[in-house]
Design brief:
The protein is of the alpha+beta class. It has 7 helices and 8 strands. It has a 3-stranded mixed sheet with strand order 6-1-8. A hairpin with a 5-residue loop joins strand 3 and strand 4.
């Protein structure tokens, strides 16, 4: 029948409209900020840097490999590498970023930086209440602003964080086993021999 599709559409609209008065499932308006919808685990907004332990500077997983900076489509990441090294998340000496900036006014939340990071050092946050009255420095996030704990990562992405922690634990065990095997294979140092005593000469 001609116009059947229009009638079906109007009937669906009327059903949803009238149903919104009697069924809570059909209520689509959320009285924000008093009411908030629960965020799904896959939600993403802007990146953050993961650190382990209590000290965010010592615990940062980032090793300044520059992969995220090179792969970022809008080029909003800027990194400067250290000249010295510190232990990384699995205990290996690695470089670390002395500067790590993200311009969130340019960031497009594509998550490519997360996908290319081989050290699970950068992840996507779920925080969206980020208004600022400073459109310059307020939108250029430095390393301290970006650093968030592994506990925060577990809170917002529990399934993914558990998988990452299991992988890191396996890597730590492998590094520890390798170091133990190397220590056991190293021959024990021979005891030092005392210097020879000079013979007494007759006068």
């Amino acid at each position: 029948m001609f116009g059947e599709g229009i009638l079906k559409g109007l009937a669906e609209t009327a059903r949803n409209f009238l149903g919104s008065y009697v069924s809570k499932k059909r209520l689509t308006t959320v009285q924000y900020p008093e009411e908030r919808l629960p965020q799904i685990e896959a939600y993403r907004n802007f990146p953050f840097l993961v650190y382990d332990g209590e000290d965010w500077q010592q615990g940062l997983r980032c090793v300044s490999c520059f992969i995220c900076e090179k792969e970022c489509p809008p080029k909003c990441i800027f990194i400067e590498k250290s000249t010295d090294k510190k232990p990384d998340a699995v205990g290996k000496p690695q470089f670390y970023p002395t500067v790590f900036n993200i311009d969130v006014s340019v960031c497009m939340s594509c998550q490519i930086c997360v996908e290319v990071c081989p050290f699970d050092a950068i992840k996507m946050d779920t925080d969206f209440e980020l208004s600022t009255d400073n459109r310059f420095s307020g939108l250029l996030w430095d390393k301290k602003h970006l650093a968030k704990s592994n506990e925060h990562y577990h809170k917002i992405h529990p399934t993914e964080a558990a998988v990452v922690d299991a992988q890191l634990a396996a890597e730590r065990a492998k590094v520890a086993a390798k170091a133990k095997a190397a220590a056991e294979a190293k021959p024990a140092a021979a005891p030092a021999t005392p210097p020879p005593v000079p013979a007494a000469t007759e006068k």
